[in-house]
Amino acid sequence: MTSTNGSLIVGWRLNGRHILIIGGNQIASNRIEFALIAKPRKITLITPHNKITSDKIREHIAKNNVSYKDSEFKPSDLIESNNLPVDFVLSAVDNQQLSEQIANIAREKRIPVNIAEIPHLCDFWFMPTYHDNHLQVAISTNGTGPYVARKLRQHIFENIPPNITAAINNVDLLKQNLGVTNISAFTKIIDTLPLSELTKLTSDDIKKLVSKHNVDDEEIEVSSTSESMDEKNSDVTIIDERQDSGFTLKSKLFDVNGDVIIPSFTSGGTQLVDGKTAVEHIAYAFSTTSFIYPTTRTNYVGKAALSWVSQKVPNAFGQSSQVIKMDTRYGASAAILGVMAHSRLDNVSIFATSQSIVPMIPNFYGIVQANIPLVIHVSASGNDDQMINYVNYNDVLIARETGFGIINSYSSQEIHDIALITHLISITTKTPFLHVFDGLNTSLELSKVNLLSYDSINNLIDEIKSLPISSTKNSDVLDCFELIADKIGKLTGRQYRPFEYIGDPNAESILVVLGGETVITKETVKRINYGEKKVGIIIARVYRPWSEKHFLAVVPKTVKRIAILEQVASKEDYSFGPSIFNDIAVSFSSDNSWINKSPILIDAKYLTTQKFSPSVVHAILKQLISNNNNIFNEELLLEKVNIPLINNNVKQCIFWDSETQETIQAVKHISKILEQHSKLNFTTSSTFDIYNNRGVITTNLQLGNDVISGLQDIESDYDFISVHDVSLTSKYNVLASAKNEAVVVLNTNWTVDELETKLPNDFRYEASKKNIKLFILNSEKIAQDVGSTLKAVISVIFQSVFLRLFSNMIQLDCNLEDSIIDLFEGNNEKEASLLICAICQQLEKSIVSVELPPTWGILEKSDQNLPSTIQSNSLDRNLDQPEIEKPKLRNWHVVAQNLLFKEAYNFDRDIRPDLSEKTYIIRVSENRRLTPPSYDRYLFHIEFEIDGTDLKYDLGEALGVYGHNDSKEVNQFLEFYGLNPDDVVFIPNKGNRFESRTIFQLFSQVLDIFGRPAKRFYESLAQYATDEKEREKLLWMASNEGSQEFKRRVEDTITYAELLYEFTSAHPPIEDLVQLIAPIKPRHYSIASAQSVHPNSVHLLVVTVEWENSKGVKRFGQCTRYLAGLKVGDSVTVSIKPSVMKLPPRDTQPVIMAGLGTGMAPFRAFIEERAYRKAQGKEVGPMVLYFGSRHRSMEYLYGEELEAYNIEGLLTHLRLAFSRDQENKVYIQHKMQEDSELLHQYLLKDEGWFYLCGPTWPVPDVKDAIVNSFVTAGGYTSGQAVDWVNKLKDLERYILEVY
């Protein structure tokens, strides 16, 4: 038959095109969905608002997925503003005349057009399509038989070979390896290999095929020229250019150990650095010798200076420097006294921490007496007894009475400027100084800092030395500070004073600060409105030497109350010893102008363990303003206060990383890109928790056009959240601080459908509540797609995804790919550039925007209280790699000791401490066979008592059963392996704790010794084989060459035990064996009871699983065998698994259930629950049950109950399909086809819910039966009916639980 409607199937690339869609019905909605997948440049929708009948269209308009025009179609709509026509027209209007008009106008302008439901007006059709990654299969009937086309698509879906995507990927990889010019070899390989073999090709297989065909080609070439070639006299060397070139890609910002490479900045300028580097830049300029007294293994102040010495970077005088790393111990700093006779003492500096200052103090007095112009740069940081980091000023202030000067700085820019001033004032006045800076926040913060060049510093030194200052009198030293600060201020534009006042010039209430609270105090005072109350703060920049003159000069004469903040180590320090409170009190009492007018002073000391926050500042200000008590009320610290951001133009971003993921370099690269290619201001600050969850890092990025305050202690909501390890979503509430409509990226191999079951409940709850814009990507898959396993590729992926998704905020001065390429290098620069471009292109294809399901909006927040932040307990990654504890074999005496002396051994008893799920121990109360003993299938009903437990379950949930291995088989194996069942194995658990179990317990309850091992077990077992042949065979089966044998063993369910029986020379010690064997996984069974009806029990419906392998060996389902053998009174360990199987929210909504075999279980619970509610006087809707099994006489499960419910009228319709009770098999889909009117009425008109539980095979036919009911009883087209089924899925009114 010749087609009268000739057409050709083509693929049309819509990227960069403008699509015009006309109409507001369901078909128009489908057209929008179709177009969005192809990522066109623009989609315009034209239809009057009152003609929109699709909720999905309204949603697309609200989300700006389309450009919407609220009007009827006009011919001018086919032309864009630049006078160019649109690229495609898709019309879905319910008006024949208008459809013809649209088609004619589009054709006049040569614009391809599709008119829904009118084939002869279409230039192209939308065909039923099967998608599987790269594969697309389209079926066309030229628009005349869409129903047949859809049936064909279903047929293809059911019959397409498995792993077809693998075949496509392998063919593409083969083509790349052969090269585009070697078509003959490529064709030869493809033609000789069947499709099933193409799917199984490994990278090694492909290399061998390429090598073989290349060798064949070379032999042909050699034979054709051999007659004219004298092999002996040839000077030709053959180089095989196909060999692996060893291509590398590495960051220019990090060394091979993953440490940041810090270049020298002798030329100055604006640089992206942290506070440590800023202070080292200045100290190195002044010093020929520097000493480092670190208290941490990494990220200590002075580390960059060590690097500069190795690079032979000269100081500001053009001299070479030396940097010496010292031990922190009693008498530290004595080296300074030793250097006196050998070096210019104004050329020495020290890098230290708060803790390393303490043992130096005895030598400070000698240094002061010797008038040594020394500067010690002190990183104020420490750890409490819980290893939590804090800003530690208290230890530094122990030195306040030694005669050393003390000068403070609080941000990275201040650190640079104050370090410069401190060195100059120390040289000028011959006074040693401690320059104290926030060593916690600034060490972990990257920001743009204006660094002075070494030439400028050298000139400053000459200028300052000419000043006539030599007195060491306190006020003169501070006068010198002001003089030097003014000179530097003229150079930099930044001004500093010994005491700096901020606030109302007529303030009545003032805070005085000098430590780690300074930045928080400044920002809090700026951000909180205290109404008529006038407040201010004084920052004690130069604390020692103390100058009454300079302090009182900045105090407003109007002040009535002053609170003095100071950090102390313990409450004993509140009232004793020197303090800034005493200094200020003496200053007021000594000055005649303040006699009888001295303000009330409040001594507001706080402990080092007290996290200083805006709440503390607010509490102090509140007390200052409200009463006359000069004793600080610590209870005010408990008050909560929200500090608003004063600048909404600043965007907040956070990146969550695990140390195991190696993704933490991405944010450093992003920062460098922003520095080099944008005009934005920004800061980044990292937090490291190396002790919890195997190491977690969060990095905050603040960016905007305005000045960034750098205030990290005020927790603000985030605009962008990137989680590079999706497992963190179950350990932290990562969305707690998300803004409404924040962009959230998850790195995961989960599909969109799997998010429903794998993402934690609270994540989905917060996501819906805040309407986040969720994206998912699989970085490992992207790396595979571009053919690279290099670690740097992952970093490139996360840089690219942030810069793309945040492009509305970030305007780069170059394209994205070039900005990333600048930061990487390889042994082949061209290859490096191509790889990065390929990554960026692949990312654009691979990142998935997730539409949040409506069901997430009805979730309730759980009682689980996950932390929203991590603890700060390190300044860098965990460089310590402790030896992993291995299991230990002990006799029973050790456990006896633990039991007898629990407190001494910190011993607890727990059900299953190895499990993350909450578990319960319940007891069997009934185990009853439902099928006749003569029947070959064993189905049984089992009940468990849950009295005395807090086990609660909801409808539709599953019971996770932790089955035991057969005791007889376990004992046989233990005897064979030479193990004593009563010996005890201690297995490492969380922290430094161990679980203890007997050998028998371990092999019967925990280890899946009779389960099927993966390939890696074969590989691991080979390492223990003493017989070389056994070792070779194990390795061969684990290799590609032995894949067929391995596959056969998998099909025969060869177990761990059988491998150990077979390969007797491979005998891992028990301590290793327990780590090689996978644990027994729980088997989940749908609960067949409603707890409202059975408050003290839970019921299951189970069928035993038995089969024989190819050798006739009988196999059993591990858990069903265990359950079938349980006796009344036996104990079982269980857990609860949530499910999507829930009754409708309204009791009156119809429930249509389709269950096959044990798929009946949840529906028994549904029916019981409806019966319970009806008995409570509630009106309940109709219930329909389609139940299928083989024989009525054998497998009519719960038949008597069902008949009773049906007679009573609760089970409105009972449709039974016993497939083998008649000649022609009858299945549930046949019964459903007979109920078209009923299904249409209940599902569409009465808003009913449909459920299918059981095996997967009837799913397509069941769906067809429902689609057919909508067509025959509802008058819909087949396309509309399918759309309705899809809509029911979206609304979670069409629920499948199949296996």
Automatic annotation (TrEMBL):
<dbReference type="GO" id="GO:0050660">
    <property type="term" value="F:flavin adenine dinucleotide binding"/>
</dbReference>
<dbReference type="GO" id="GO:0046872">
    <property type="term" value="F:metal ion binding"/>
</dbReference>
<dbReference type="Pfam" id="PF13241">
    <property type="entry name" value="NAD_binding_7"/>
</dbReference>
<dbReference type="InterPro" id="IPR002869">
    <property type="entry name" value="Pyrv_flavodox_OxRed_cen"/>
</dbReference>
<keyword id="KW-0274">FAD</keyword>
<keyword id="KW-0520">NAD</keyword>
<comment type="pathway">
    <text>Sulfur metabolism; hydrogen sulfide biosynthesis; hydrogen sulfide from sulfite (NADPH route): step 1/1.</text>
</comment>
<dbReference type="Pfam" id="PF01855">
    <property type="entry name" value="POR_N"/>
</dbReference>
<dbReference type="GO" id="GO:0019354">
    <property type="term" value="P:siroheme biosynthetic process"/>
</dbReference>
<dbReference type="GO" id="GO:0043115">
    <property type="term" value="F:precorrin-2 dehydrogenase activity"/>
</dbReference>
<dbReference type="Pfam" id="PF00667">
    <property type="entry name" value="FAD_binding_1"/>
</dbReference>
<keyword id="KW-0627">Porphyrin biosynthesis</keyword>
<comment type="function">
    <text>This enzyme catalyzes the 6-electron reduction of sulfite to sulfide. This is one of several activities required for the biosynthesis of L-cysteine from sulfate.</text>
</comment>
<dbReference type="InterPro" id="IPR009014">
    <property type="entry name" value="Transketo_C/PFOR_II"/>
</dbReference>
<feature type="domain" description="FAD-binding FR-type">
    <location>
        <begin position="917"/>
        <end position="1145"/>
    </location>
</feature>
<comment type="pathway">
    <text>Porphyrin-containing compound metabolism; siroheme biosynthesis; sirohydrochlorin from precorrin-2: step 1/1.</text>
</comment>
<keyword id="KW-0411">Iron-sulfur</keyword>
<dbReference type="InterPro" id="IPR001433">
    <property type="entry name" value="OxRdtase_FAD/NAD-bd"/>
</dbReference>
<keyword id="KW-0408">Iron</keyword>
<dbReference type="InterPro" id="IPR028281">
    <property type="entry name" value="Sirohaem_synthase_central"/>
</dbReference>
<keyword id="KW-0813">Transport</keyword>
<protein>
    <recommendedName>
        <fullName>FAD-binding FR-type domain-containing protein</fullName>
    </recommendedName>
</protein>
<dbReference type="Pfam" id="PF14824">
    <property type="entry name" value="Sirohm_synth_M"/>
</dbReference>
<dbReference type="GO" id="GO:0005829">
    <property type="term" value="C:cytosol"/>
</dbReference>
<keyword id="KW-0285">Flavoprotein</keyword>
<dbReference type="InterPro" id="IPR001709">
    <property type="entry name" value="Flavoprot_Pyr_Nucl_cyt_Rdtase"/>
</dbReference>
<dbReference type="InterPro" id="IPR039261">
    <property type="entry name" value="FNR_nucleotide-bd"/>
</dbReference>
<dbReference type="Pfam" id="PF01558">
    <property type="entry name" value="POR"/>
</dbReference>
<dbReference type="GO" id="GO:0010181">
    <property type="term" value="F:FMN binding"/>
</dbReference>
<dbReference type="InterPro" id="IPR029061">
    <property type="entry name" value="THDP-binding"/>
</dbReference>
<dbReference type="InterPro" id="IPR003097">
    <property type="entry name" value="CysJ-like_FAD-binding"/>
</dbReference>
<keyword id="KW-0560">Oxidoreductase</keyword>
<dbReference type="InterPro" id="IPR036291">
    <property type="entry name" value="NAD(P)-bd_dom_sf"/>
</dbReference>
<dbReference type="InterPro" id="IPR019752">
    <property type="entry name" value="Pyrv/ketoisovalerate_OxRed_cat"/>
</dbReference>
<dbReference type="InterPro" id="IPR006367">
    <property type="entry name" value="Sirohaem_synthase_N"/>
</dbReference>
<dbReference type="InterPro" id="IPR017927">
    <property type="entry name" value="FAD-bd_FR_type"/>
</dbReference>
<dbReference type="GO" id="GO:0051539">
    <property type="term" value="F:4 iron, 4 sulfur cluster binding"/>
</dbReference>
<keyword id="KW-0249">Electron transport</keyword>
<dbReference type="InterPro" id="IPR023173">
    <property type="entry name" value="NADPH_Cyt_P450_Rdtase_alpha"/>
</dbReference>
<dbReference type="InterPro" id="IPR002880">
    <property type="entry name" value="Pyrv_Fd/Flavodoxin_OxRdtase_N"/>
</dbReference>
<keyword id="KW-0288">FMN</keyword>
<keyword id="KW-0521">NADP</keyword>
